[in-house]
Design brief:
Layout (H helix, E strand, L loop, with lengths): L2 H9 L1 H32 L6 H16 L14 H31 L4 H26 L2 H31 L20
The chain binds fe (ii) ion (FE2) (2 copies).
Length: about 190
């Protein structure tokens, strides 16, 4: 707008209010866009040593959602309860346990003892691994639809907590010390056909 248009708009109350409303909308849209971009940047920013774990999380998250009640967006979500149970038990033994093992024997020992808050988070995460194992046992015992649902929520929140909070904290505290275990952690879900 040139100065003449500015004067016209500022002296016309209806135009002034239109400009104010639309300017606010435009600013909101651009802030949302910036937030989405920064969220994308945050999820993409991962130290190369732990990228394989994040890769596993991506696959495991789909399974966690697929075993929840009334989740029909994936092939697993629409399959029978007994197929879900078979699949979950197979994935637990062949993928979840090796993944937990990478975290508990390689990553967490390197990260422990450097930051009090991080130590608490890691202890919580290890406890959650046990809770996930217990949820698998309950599925095998009975009341399968309900117990699959419990497992789905538990696993989903566990993965999100690792991705959003714990791994970010580990990267912040350890930085390039993560290079010490580079190459020792690999993605266990590469063969997973979910
Ligand atoms: Fe974990
Ligand atoms: Fe994990």
């Amino acid at each position: 707008m040139n100065w003449l248009t500015n004067v016209f708009v500022l002296t016309n109350p209806r135009l002034k209010s239109w400009v104010n409303n639309n300017l606010t909308n435009m600013l909101t849209v651009s802030t949302d866009f910036a937030n989405k971009k920064s969220l994308k940047r945050n999820t993409m920013k991962r130290h190369k040593t732990i990228i394989p774990l994040s890769h596993d999380h991506h696959v495991m998250l789909k399974m966690a959602q697929g075993v929840k009640k009334n989740f029909i967006k994936t092939e697993l979500g629409t399959s029978t309860i007994s197929n879900k149970v078979k699949h979950v038990i197979h994935v637990y033994n062949t993928e979840l346990l090796p993944h937990f093992n990478h975290e508990e024997t390689l990553l967490f020992p390197l990260a422990m003892g450097k930051d009090a808050e991080l130590d608490i988070l890691i202890n919580e995460i290890v406890e959650e691994h046990d809770q996930i194992g217990e949820a698998i046992s309950k599925i095998e015992e009975g009341n399968q639809e309900q117990n699959l649902d419990v497992l789905g929520f538990l696993l989903e929140s566990h993965i999100r907590k690792e991705e959003r909070i714990v791994f970010s904290k580990i990267e912040e505290i350890l930085g390039d010390d993560l290079n010490i275990i580079e190459g020792q952690i690999y993605a266990v879900t590469d063969s997973c056909g979910i």
